[in-house]
UniProtKB/TrEMBL annotation:
This is Thiamine-monophosphate kinase. InterPro entries: PurM-like_C_dom, PurM-like_C_sf, PurM-like_N, PurM-like_N_sf, ThiL-like. One of its GO terms (molecular function) is thiamine-phosphate kinase activity. NCBIfam families: thiL. Mg(2+) 2 binds at D48, D77. It is an enzyme of class 2 (transferase).
Length: 341
């Protein structure tokens, strides 16, 4: 890239021009952004990074998908707190081999994700990197004071639920890797699986329903797989979670692909991650009310288990009997555990 750094940044972030108002006083173009949040609200802040070869491969993700997914992982974190995403700061370290046009496409994906959820890009940083491209997103949101949802709120007697379907992103990654290895395009019948991996949807609306309700307990987003997220809730809350294998919602296309490739869709659901659904607990007596609220918004909602008193752990009831589920999934420092793409 030989073009002037600042002209490139202006070009990549042009979709942020003229976006003042609604709490934003100073946006991109000054030393820092200035904004205000609504009275009676608390700030929800999170930061997540995507590193080439660690979080994504060029064989499975085009540049716009990389930008989109970097933002979506942060929006999902805000959703897991019951919050509304508001403002994003984007930092990118560009390595050799990535052109100015590649970076433009990354930013197009960033803005696609932001605009879908009402988020404004208000600043960031752009530098060079000697090795891998790195994209870091800091997201600022808001939630009503005292209403933020936490992993530590599960209590014995509550039920465990999950929104949407799980395992599809991991199946999509498997599909994309197989196709890349063969040098073939993804077959049309399996394209929705690729979409699950490349363009997942954060569950902000579901989080807002839960934040407004008196019956919500703990909440987490499915970024590292059900096994990992459930374990985090069990540990933070000091409870035992028992889930029913038959109740775990897996999309028909995911099951069909598993049959086609002789794989186990349960493994994708438990250990794959990046579905960005919400998993949590709620009061058992209010499950019908919860089902009604989610149905009104067209959000799939499935009860998959229950909360019990006991040593913090996760168990699963199967036809073969009850088995303990290890806390596994994607782990940056966990050696041979499942990777991402």
């Amino acid at each position: 890239m030989t073009q002037d750094e600042f002209s490139l940044i202006r070009q990549w972030t042009s979709r942020s021009s003229g976006q003042h108002g609604d709490g934003l006083s100073v946006g991109i173009g000054d030393d820092a952004a200035v904004f205000s949040l609504s009275p009676g609200m608390e700030v929800v802040a999170c930061c997540d990074a995507m590193v080439e070869t660690v979080h994504f491969l060029r064989e499975t993700m085009n540049p716009s998908d990389i930008g989109y997914k970097a933002v979506m992982s942060n929006i999902s974190d805000v959703a897991a707190m019951g919050g509304l995403p508001r403002f994003a700061l984007i930092s990118v370290a560009v390595s050799p081999g990535w052109s100015a046009d590649d970076c433009q496409q990354i930013y197009e994906g960033i803005y696609d994700a932001c605009e879908a959820y009402g988020v404004r890009v208000i600043g960031g940083d752009t530098v060079s990197s000697p090795a891998a491209l790195t994209l870091s997103v800091t997201l600022l949101g808001e939630v009503e004071k005292g209403r933020a949802l936490r992993r530590s709120a599960a209590r014995p007697g509550q039920l465990v639920f999950v929104t949407g379907q799980v395992g599809g992103s991991a199946a999509g990654l498997d599909l994309l890797l197989r196709s890349a290895k063969k040098g073939e395009a993804v077959a049309e019948e399996w394209r929705p699986l690729a979409w699950f991996h490349q363009r997942p949807q954060a569950q902000v609306a579901a989080g807002r329903i839960l934040a407004a309700s008196p019956w919500a307990g703990a909440l987490n987003d499915v970024s590292d797989g059900l096994a990992s997220e459930l374990s985090e809730i069990a540990e933070a809350s000091g409870v035992r979670l028992v889930i029913d294998e038959r109740s775990i919602p897996v999309a028909n296309i995911t099951r069909a692909y598993a049959i086609e490739t002789d794989q186990d869709p349960l493994g994708w659901a438990l250990y794959g991650g990046e579905d960005y659904q919400l998993v949590g607990t709620l009061e058992a007596a209010e499950v019908k009310e919860a089902e009604l609220r989610f149905a009104e918004k067209g959000i799939p909602f499935t009860v998959i288990g229950r909360v019990e008193a006991g040593e913090p752990s996760v168990w699963m009831d199967r036809e073969q009997g009850r088995m303990k589920i290890a806390k596994a999934g994607y782990n940056h420092f966990g050696g041979a555990e499942a990777g991402k793409g």
